[in-house]
Write a structure and sequence with these properties.
Blueprint: E1 2-8, E2 13-20, E3 23-27, H1 34-42, E4 46-51, H2 63-70, E5 73-76, E6 87-88, E7 94-97, E8 100-106, E9 115-120, E10 126-132, H3 155-170, E11 178-181, E12 199-200, H4 201-207, H5 217-225, H6 235-244, H7 249-256, E13 259-260, H8 262-271, E14 275-278, H9 282-287, E15 294-295, H10 302-309, E16 317-320, H11 326-335, E17 341-345, H12 348-354, E18 364-365, H13 367-376, E19 381-383, H14 387-392, E20 399-400, H15 406-409, E21 419-422, H16 427-437, E22 444-447, H17 450-457
Parallel strand pairs: 3-4, 4-5, 5-6, 10-11, 13-17, 14-15, 14-16, 16-17, 18-22, 19-20, 19-21, 21-22
Antiparallel strand pairs: 1-2, 2-3, 7-8, 8-9, 9-10, 11-12
Helix pairs in contact: 3-5, 7-11
């Protein structure tokens, strides 16, 4: 028997390949399905099932393309009603996988159709639980996502369902069962996930706050609902794509991988509403970029920030990427449903420079330079980290303006005033500055190294409690 977790760090997402006696199942596949097909081919196995734990909100699953390419059955549990052919498995139904079996366990709570899949070996021994978003390592699935699709499913209603699902169906399983969740730390599908991506159920019973044996229903509902922040705006759109269907990734790539010369790129940018997305690292963007482009670096939390900051999932996008990484960018956009990439700048930004096209820059300062300036004048700082990060520690007079909420507060900035912008390390601050620069704010200076560098320098006073300062 083969169990392989195929983990994608930028989404904090775990897909799974399970194989027994030449028969394979894929659980919660990503949009690009060729790696699963290749793995089965190398092993001389055939993919029989595509098992979906629920309608995902944070990424577009690859179930449709994988089914089309392999003939495998798409399997959901009870209460799922997608708009394509699928197999509706009953609660407790056993799906044969070679000599092994996979038992479908309906666990409503994160969503009403949520299921876990329990793998048993040929003797019937429970081996592994693929828990989807029902049970994470250190946490459980948030109960506030389905309301966007079905208003009657309030967080309290779903939290109560989740309580009974965990107590009645998951916690009675043997302690040595290995839990393999759909997500790990960094995912917005939970609030307190650990960095580990698997664990025994027995250890989780002792360490996961939501699995306390003496926890009452009311305590569970209250604790699960406490501390939830608003989910990314793109989540409901991904749910609908997973329910209703979507274009083949092959077609999305064919459209996005349209090589545009600098002149052709400029024409498309000027004559359409396409957004120019520069995916190079922040330092390269600062040194020079195409006017009105925004920077979300491919080597950071790319897909989640795209989803959080580009409000229209159907937005046409022109891509600026490092040469050779164009397909990677377009694929990662498609992972979260941004399928309308319409071309990329052939030869990258360097080719734009060679063509003599107009460019803009972002001014950056080192902490050493900033220390000299701060001794000479009072500086205005904007801290674009999350509120929880700011509350933990911050510069005393820094204005907290989380990147997540940039559109809500930017009108309160004075375009003629100079602000020094920082995040934790420099990734988010460049995104922030690029968005505002594209909207006519040119007096924003990036602090290289972010708050980490400011703190380590010892030159700036740090407040480690919430101080009542003006908030934007």
């Amino acid at each position: 028997m083969i169990i392989e977790q195929m983990y994608t760090g930028c989404l904090a997402q775990g897909a799974y390949y399970i194989e027994c006696d030449g028969v394979a199942a894929i659980i919660d596949p990503l949009r690009e399905v060729q790696p699963y097909i290749d793995k089965a081919s190398r092993n001389g196995a055939s993919i029989k099932y595509i098992l979906e734990t629920h309608f995902h909100a944070d990424f577009v699953s690859g179930h449709l393309d994988l089914a089309q390419k392999t003939g495998a059955a798409i399997v959901y549990g009870p209460e799922a009603a997608p708009q394509f052919n699928f197999y509706s498995a009953a609660d407790g139904e056993e799906l044969p996988l070679g000599k092994a079996t996979i038992t479908v366990i309906h666990t409503p709570g994160h969503t009403m159709e949520s299921c876990c899949f329990l793998l048993k070996d040929e003797t019937g021994k429970e081996i592994a639980l693929f828990s989807g978003d029902t049970l994470f390592i250190g946490d459980v699935g948030r109960p506030d996502l389905a309301q966007k699709i079905r208003p009657e499913l309030t967080p309290a209603v779903l939290a109560e369902h989740l309580y009974w699902s965990l107590r009645g169906k998951i916690m009675p399983l043997p302690d040595d069962v290995v839990v393999y969740p759909a997500h790990g730390a960094g995912s917005a599908c939970g609030k307190n996930m650990c960095k580990e991506t698997s664990d025994t159920l027995g250890h989780q019973k002792h360490t996961n706050y939501a699995l306390r044996s003496n926890m009452t229903r009311d305590e569970f509902i209250r604790e699960v609902m406490t501390g939830l922040v608003a989910p990314p705006a793109y989540f409901p759109f991904n749910v609908l794509m997973n329910m209703q269907g979507y274009e083949s990734l092959d077609k999305v790539l064919g459209r996005g991988l349209r090589a545009l010369s600098p002149s052709a790129f400029e024409i498309v940018a000027n004559e359409t509403t396409a957004l120019i997305l520069d995916t190079r690292d922040p330092a390269s963007f600062a040194k020079g970029h195409i006017p009105n482009s925004i920077n979300i670096g491919i080597d950071g939390s790319f897909a989640p920030w795209v989803g959080a900051l580009i409000p229209d999932i159907k937005q046409e996008i022109l891509v600026v990427a490092e040469t050779g990484r164009e397909q990677e960018v377009i694929t990662r956009l498609a992972r979260v449903g941004y399928d309308q990439a319409v071309g990329y700048l052939v030869g990258g930004y360097e080719n734009w420079i060679r063509a003599g096209k107009e460019v803009e820059h972002v001014t950056s300062v080192t902490v050493a330079q900033l220390t000299v300036q701060a001794a000479q004048q009072t500086l205005s700082f904007i801290d674009v980290r999350k509120r929880s990060e700011y509350d933990s520690e911050h510069l005393p007079d820094a204005l907290n303006m989380p990147l997540d909420n940039i559109n809500e507060h930017m009108q309160q900035l004075n375009r003629n005033h100079t602000y020094y912008v920082h995040c934790a390390g420099g990734y988010r601050s460049m995104i922030f500055i690029s968005i505002l620069q594209a909207r006519g704010f040119f007096n924003l200076i990036n602090v290289e190294g972010g708050f980490k560098a400011l703190k380590e320098s010892g030159a700036f006073r740090i407040t480690d409690f919430v101080k009542p300062v003006t908030q934007l």
